[in-house]
Amino acid sequence: MKLNRNGQRAPIIIRLVVALGACATGPQVTRTQHLSESSDSPYQNILVITLYSLFDSRRYLETEVVKKLSELGTRAVASTSLMDSRTPSTRQTFLKMVEAIDADAVLVTQLVSLETEGTMVDMSPEATYNIRQTYYYNVFSVDLQEYVEPQAVDFEHSLVLGTQLYSVLSKDVVWAIESKSRIDPDFGEVADYSIYVDEADAIVTHMSGDGLIEN
Predict the structure, then answer these.
(1) Strand extents, DSSP E, 37-104
(2) Is residue 72's pLDDT more than 50?
(3) Does residue 4 belong to any structural domain of this protein?
(4) Cα–Cα dist 159/108, whole Å
């Protein structure tokens, strides 16, 4: 099984995106490798691996992918269900998992790129008014005091994830996609778990449509 070497560099960035909270549109998916003619699909027992260094982010995405595969009748196991945060994410670790569950395919997702744009924005000011009458008819004295917060930075992220499916029999990549999401954080929001749900839905929907699993 061939695993890309950059699986450990994602999570500090992923933690930033998720911690900010976000409103994300559904991922745009591009096939980077169509189903190989030598593929032994459909696959019925898939090991699901996400290569982030942040264990919780890996677990969230793997859990959602497994859930959606299971809903379509395909047996799938999350790698994070067979390990803990201290287990090394190495090729040998995953090969042992393949043997343990007798997997016929391995689904690997990792970060391809994350671009962040920041724009300075003015925060909403607050004002107090003190209106007093004067000695003149219909003439008033007005004191205005305005409180303005410091400017904040509005971030927008472009997140690209790469997903590859490996055949255990051929030990080669038989299918691959990239999914791109635009993520616009909102001030004060909590972490948005729907990012993981949307990514998992996009991955499994395309697996199903391309005949990688039985419908």
Answers:
(1) 45-51, 75-78
(2) yes
(3) no
(4) 17
Residue 190 has pLDDT above 70, yes or no: no
Domain that holds residue 200: 11-119+155-209
CATH number of the CATH domain containing 176: 3.40.50
Q: What percent of the chain has pLDDT over 90?
A: 53
Cα end-to-end distance, the chain, whole Å: 26
d(CA 164, CA 159): 17
3-state DSSP call for residue 202?
A: helix
Assess if residue 26 is contained within a domain: yes
Flag whether 126 is in a domain.
Answer: no
The answer to whether residue 183 scores a pLDDT higher than 80 is no
User: What stretches of 126-190 show up as alpha helix (H) in DSSP?
Assistant: none
What's the structural domain count of the chain? 1
Give residues with Cβ within 8 angstroms of 209, minimum separation 6.
none
| 3-state SS assignment for residue 79 | helix
Rg (CA), the chain: 25
Read off the pTM: 0.71
